[in-house]
Design goal:
single chain, alpha/beta, Aspartate Aminotransferase, domain 2, 2 domains, 11% strand
């Protein structure tokens, strides 16, 4: 059933949503226990979380006797086959960015040569320095890192390989915080960001004891520049803009935000975790796309996930900085530790050398020509899907993204459309404020020659279904799921309980 359906089934109270009312209920153990008991007694929820509990033994203790490699791999292969089948037809939004098992096999082989290697031990495996340095150099190349040096010969754009988009964002927020403390004597650092910015920025601000100051969006669902400027204070260390944002794939007015950053002498982070590695190819292909990289003088950091449209394995991203001094603020070192002199580039110490090798292999395999060829196909499929939406009067597009088709309606509850699409095997990403869903176009969609026609047929039928509905939809709007409006005091207890369960065995 999943957490979204559980919420709507068990705890929905049809009260107005208050997005930021959740922290006060985080520690409400009674509410968490209430939800946990509801989950335990809900067969659908249990089945969704533990579908293999009857087929395979539940290992709630270390097994006394070893299990053969053959039996272990047989279990893994069977579960993998069941869970991989849905994405191969192209009906799942995002998640599986490449969509070619041969490519994954190639990356897995590269990973395997370094699967046991710790990236800290560069003296043992100096090849990791080659991989990481070249990954960063190639990423800087496509994001026009040379523009920094052209503006200021004393500065050079640089970066680090991280374990994912959240890690990249954390590293940038932390570096800007430390810069603000060191260079401006800021003791209560703030970041200014639009409400559409990724939750990782709010997480980073919370963990790093910073204030996240939220600005509204304009009528085009872009960051409202005037509102963002009004929220800049003497404590502001950085602005945030997206290229493009998760909800709608929209690129914020980054040129104007860059001007603000320069005007106020503060940092600016461009979040390209989702879209960076595909939007980079728009202009080279002759497709109109706003400048979002280091060509903008106010940009001091960029995050871009190699494990998305970079087609690397999951667990890699890049964080880029406009100069080496800013990057150094993310470093952490201990010189008096009994275990020896220690330094790390960020929050993580150990990182798998296999991910370094596999990411390098992916980028080398594709090169500019390969990336552009796939981007062209993705842009084309997305344009055709948007035209399908435009042809249906009852629907509307949110923005005009190059790689995301974001859909809403003023005629009926759009979640009814999503409900129907689910019955046909489609898995869209639900959105809220306003209600909608999006279809993020990736590799599986460009390999299905009938994907547009299939989507058009099912979408038109979904609209007819939605028009006939009188009750509430089943869908909701959660990250990775989809939301009715619920009692805000119950949101975090529900999500906390669900997260607890996902780290448990059956019975939980």
């Amino acid at each position: 059933m999943g957490i979204a359906k559980f919420i709507e089934k068990k705890i929905v109270k049809h009260l107005p949503s208050v997005a930021r009312a959740v922290q006060r209920s985080m520690n409400d153990d009674k509410k968490i226990d209430l939800v946990m008991n509801e989950m335990r007694n809900d067969p659908e929820m249990v089945d969704s979380l533990f579908p293999y509990r009857e087929k395979y033994p539940v290992n709630d203790k270390m097994p006394e006797k070893p299990m053969s490699r053959e039996d272990i791999l047989a279990q893994i292969k069977e579960m993998h086959a069941l869970e991989s089948a849905p994405w191969k037809g192209g009906k799942i939004s995002g998640s599986f960015y490449h969509g070619d098992q041969d490519h994954y096999d190639f990356l897995n082989e590269a990973f395997g040569y370094y699967s046991q290697v710790n990236s800290i031990q560069r003296d043992v495996c100096p090849s990791l320095t080659k991989y990481e340095g070249e990954i960063i150099a190639m990423t800087l190349d496509i994001f026009n890192g040379d523009a920094v040096n052209k503006r200021n010969p004393e500065q050079k754009a640089c970066g680090s390989l991280t374990t994912g988009g959240t890690d990249s964002i954390f590293q940038s927020v932390y570096a800007h915080r430390e810069w603000g403390v060191d260079q401006k004597n800021i003791t209560q650092p703030e970041i200014v960001l639009p409400v559409s910015a990724h939750p990782a920025f709010f997480k980073a601000a919370h963990y790093l004891n910073m204030k996240a100051v939220v600005a509204k969006l304009d009528d085009n669902f872009e960051a409202d520049v005037a509102d963002m400027e009004s929220k800049i204070t003497s404590n502001t260390v950085m602005l945030v803009g997206s290229a493009g944002n998760y909800g709608h794939g929209i690129i914020d007015p980054l040129e104007k935000l860059s001007d603000l950053a320069v005007k106020h002498g503060i940092g600016m982070h461009v979040d390209g975790c989702l879209g960076g590695f595909i939007l980079a190819w728009a202009q080279p292909l002759g497709i109109e796309c706003p400048v979002f990289d280091f060509r903008l003088p106010g940009v001091t950091a960029i995050s871009a996930d190699t494990h998305k449209y970079g087609y690397a394995l999951k667990g890699t991203s890049t964080v880029l900085f406009s100069n080496e001094k800013l990057r150094r603020y993310q470093y952490s070192g201990e010189v008096d530790w009994p275990g020896g002199v220690y330094i790390s580039t960020g929050f993580n110490g150990s990182k798998s050398g296999g991910l370094f090798a596999a990411t390098w292999a992916a980028m080398m395999h594709y090169g500019k020509e390969g990336y552009m060829a796939r981007a062209k196909k993705i842009f084309d499929v997305n344009l055709r899907l948007k035209n399908v939406v435009r042809s249906i009067p009852e629907l509307k597009l949110f923005g005009d993204s190059l790689f995301i088709t974001a859909v809403g309606s003023d005629q009926f509850n759009i979640y009814h459309v999503n409900d129907y699409l689910k019955t046909k095997g489609w898995r869209m990403n639900g959105q809220q404020h306003p209600n909608g869903f999006h279809f993020c176009i990736t590799g599986p969609q460009i390999t299905n020659p009938t994907i547009v026609e299939d989507f058009e047929k099912d979408l038109k039928a979904a609209v007819e279904y939605a028009q006939a509905q009188k009750g509430d939809p089943k869908s909701a709007a959660m990250y990775g799921g989809a939301g009715k409006e619920i009692d805000p005091s119950m949101y975090m207890p529900m999500l906390t309980a669900y997260t607890d369960v996902t780290q448990s065995t059956y019975p939980f």
